């Protein structure tokens, strides 16, 4: 039978756990269901991340009967999953079930001394992942960056003018991916005649949380970004928004790295009622994972 000890200094018969170690070594990692068996009687540390969301696709440009012509909005970046860190003393051959479902990672058995649950992040402003059960840390995930707004061209008094300028998507939370690039005028004005309405850029995906506890397993996201908004008419056919960055899939190995969420796609540029730039796709986020260390 598995026995989970998460209290300080548990005792197995005549064998006391003693103080936790100050150094740790990588032991194993998991991205799919498994039952892990402790190879020794020792202190172990568990790091658990819920899955991170994909970025949202950018919008297609549009027009209305009222004379309003709009570039597509950029999609928002994805949110990251919750994170738990847990320290536990186990006897040799104690077993711990690890399971994954829809981006939710669970470790241990519900109702026991060890039960960690980290949920997946979504892709709205209000649903980062959550975390419970860790005795060192339980952190909510970070929130992805907002997508930028597409420009708006308005036709009145016999002339088209720029009523709203395009904006850039924002950076994802926790030093996540940057927003994408935008094109066209940066300031709206009734005196500024335009023949197009460029798209807003995608927001950056959020970066995985937990670097204060597991920094050696978390990647930088400085090389990732939201999709670019569609360009001006003179750059056709680049009127479509580009895709947001995807992060690499997690590989369970001694070199495992957790990155974060996908970035949002850029919005398309409006050129005419029959030439509508489309939005770029949202980038892929990472799945959930569990990393186990042993006291060195």
What is the makeup of the main sheet?
A: 5 strands, antiparallel
User: What percent of residues adopt helix (DSSP H or I)?
Assistant: under 10%
Order of helices and strands: EEEEEEEEEEEEEEEEHEEE
Radius of gyration: 24 Å
The total count of strands amounts to 19
What is the rounded distance between the termini?
26 Å
The dominant shape is elongated
Unreliable residue stretches: 1-15
Supply the number of helical segments.
1
Query: Hey, roughly how much beta strand do the residues contain?
Result: 25-35%
Q: Strands across the major sheet, in which order?
A: 3-19-5-8-13
Q: Could you say which structural class the secondary elements and strand pairing correspond to?
A: mainly beta
Summed over residues and divided by their number, the pLDDT gives a mean of 92
Write the layout of secondary structure elements.
Blueprint: E1 11-12, E2 15-16, E3 24-30, E4 34-37, E5 42-49, E6 62-63, E7 68-70, E8 83-90, E9 95-101, E10 104-108, E11 115-118, E12 131-132, E13 137-139, E14 152-156, E15 159-164, E16 189-193, H1 211-214, E17 270-272, E18 275-276, E19 289-295
Antiparallel strand pairs: 1-2, 3-19, 4-9, 5-8, 5-19, 6-7, 7-14, 8-13, 9-10, 10-11, 11-12, 14-15, 15-16, 17-18
């Amino acid at each position: 039978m598995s026995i989970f000890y998460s209290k300080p200094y548990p005792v197995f018969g005549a064998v006391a756990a003693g103080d936790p170690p100050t150094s740790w070594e990588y032991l194993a990692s998991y991205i799919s269901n498994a039952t892990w068996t402790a190879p020794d009687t020792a202190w172990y540390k568990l790091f658990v991340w819920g899955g991170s969301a994909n970025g949202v696709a950018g919008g297609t440009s549009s027009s209305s009967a009222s004379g309003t012509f709009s570039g597509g909005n950029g999609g928002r970046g994805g949110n990251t999953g919750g994170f738990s860190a847990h320290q536990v003393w186990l006897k040799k051959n104690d077993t711990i079930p690890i399971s994954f479902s829809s981006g939710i990672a669970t470790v241990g058995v519900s109702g026991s001394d060890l039960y960690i649950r980290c949920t997946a992040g979504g892709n709205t402003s209000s649903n980062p992942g959550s975390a419970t059960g860790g005795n060192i840390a339980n952190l909510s995930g970070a929130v992805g960056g907002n997508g930028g707004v597409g420009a708006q061209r308005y036709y009145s008094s016999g002339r088209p003018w720029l009523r709203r300028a395009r904006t850039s998507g924002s950076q994802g939370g926790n030093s996540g991916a940057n927003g994408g690039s935008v094109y066209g005028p940066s300031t709206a004005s009734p005196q500024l005649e335009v023949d197009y309405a460029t798209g807003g850029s995608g927001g950056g995906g959020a970066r995985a949380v937990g670097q204060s506890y597991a920094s050696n397993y978390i990647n930088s996201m400085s090389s990732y970004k939201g999709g670019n908004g569609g360009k001006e008419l003179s750059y056709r056919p680049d009127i479509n928004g580009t895709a947001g960055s995807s992060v690499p899939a997690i590989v369970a190995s001694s070199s495992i790295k957790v990155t974060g969420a996908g970035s949002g796609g850029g919005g398309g540029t409006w050129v005419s009622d029959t030439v509508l730039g489309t939005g770029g796709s949202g980038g892929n986020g990472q799945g959930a994972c569990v990393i186990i260390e042993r006291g060195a």
